[in-house]
Design brief:
Radius of gyration: 26 Å
Strand order of the largest sheet: 6-5-4-8-9-10
Number of strands: 10
Strand content: 5-15%
Order of helices and strands: HHHHHHHEEHEHEHEEEEEE
Largest sheet: 6 strands, mixed
Helix content: 25-40%
Shape: elongated
Distance between the termini: 81 Å
Number of helices: 10
């Protein structure tokens, strides 16, 4: 009985693993965003732009697949290495309690446990087929073809993925700013008898009716019923990265930051704290509870900016505020950790920091 490995079996296993990796790469290529990348990947080289990380990950996977299918004698090593990395990442994600591995992008939520099982089976099968012996000297596709396909795979993310920033919308915005958020419970503020703020809990529809009732000086904001032109609609890219530190917001007027491209920043108070948050963000919930408590002894002016999300809302208490809650446009995936706080003076961003203190930038001397 021969103990020699089967070249046919090794080719089948390498091809099966390659096609599995290709499936995930194509999902990410056509529907993925940086928010789908596993946390360990986002944390690795954290200073690297997340959009670039997504493109590099897809490029590496596509090139690996080309070699696995067209030059298995060489590609099996890269396929095996990829599976080892995938298994390690999935183990970390399981320890973090992740609900989806992000391997198939936004389109498909796939449990890490199931992905770990599939990747582990493929990895064990690959090494059991002993491709380092079975495929030794095996013929590959023509070198020029392999090189051309690898080049296409490497360039595909830069060609397919639309993450560009469109031209800033033209036309005046409504005097009172964007509408109140459409989803998520909120706490709204009305003007009290002593000029202070009183909180009232309500549904999103009630909040929409109430939040515009007060302004910074207690007067009702003018309704946008004069037939004024609205900003022109723009086609949003697949995702937008907002990174106050990397994009160097500090020292700029807020309208000159990337945030100014996406909302009418001049409609809001130019002094005070602007907080970007998500309704499904646990850190935002805890941060808002702290701000609400601190407001009693140190009142501040807040502008809250909702980052659209699809998770279950957990924010139920908002710190006191008079301005309507702003909201970034729906229709794209916003890539930003929350809650981010921007401290403004006369519209100039003097400080930007993440609530947990891990990232912060302060104003330089002008």
């Amino acid at each position: 009985m021969s103990n020699a490995p089967s070249p046919k079996l090794a080719r089948i296993v390498v091809a099966a693993a390659s096609l599995w990796i290709l499936t995930g790469a194509l999902f990410k290529l056509f529907a993925g965003t940086p928010n789908d990348l596993p946390t360990p990947v986002l944390q690795f080289l954290s200073d690297l732009d997340p959009g670039l990380k997504l493109k590099l990950a897809i490029s590496i996977e596509l090139v690996t697949v080309v070699l696995g299918l067209c030059a298995p004698a060489l590609g099996w090593f890269l396929i095996g290495g990829s599976l080892v990395v995938f298994v390690a990442i999935l183990l970390v994600m399981l320890g973090q309690g992740a609900e989806s591995c992000g391997c198939f992008g936004t389109a498909v939520k796939f449990p890490p446990e199931a992905m770990l099982a599939i990747d582990s089976v493929l990895l064990v099968s690959l090494f059991a087929s002993r491709p380092w012996r079975a495929l030794r000297g095996a013929r590959s596709a023509p070198f020029v073809l392999v090189l051309a396909l690898a080049a296409v795979g490497a360039a595909a993310p830069w060609i397919v993925i639309d993450d560009g920033t469109p031209v800033k919308p033209r036309g005046p915005s409504t005097p009172s700013g964007p509408a109140a958020p459409a989803t998520g419970p909120v706490t709204t503020q009305t003007s009290g008898t002593n000029g202070g703020a009183t909180a009232s809990q309500g549904s999103p529809s009630q909040a929409a009716a109430q939040q515009g009732a007060g302004s910074a000086n207690g007067a009702a904001p003018e309704a946008a019923t004069n037939g004024g032109a609205q900003p022109e609609a723009v086609k949003l890219p697949r995702f937008v990265v907002l990174s106050p530190l990397k994009q160097e917001w500090v020292g700029k007027h807020v309208r000159d930051t990337e945030l100014g491209t996406w909302m009418p920043v001049d409609d809001y108070p130019q002094d005070g704290d602007w907080v970007l948050f998500r309704y499904d963000c646990d850190h935002c919930r805890e941060h808002f509870l702290e701000l609400d408590e601190a407001f009693q002894t140190a009142p501040k002016s807040y502008v809250f900016i909702e980052v659209p999300s699809e998770g279950t809302p957990v924010v139920t208490q908002m710190p006191p505020h008079y301005e309507p809650i702003a909201k970034l446009p729906d229709g794209t995936d916003w890539v930003i950790q929350t809650p981010w706080t921007l401290e403004l003076e006369g519209g100039i961003v003097k400080r930007a920091y993440l609530e947990d203190g891990s990232k912060e930038d302060s104003a330089k001397q002008q």
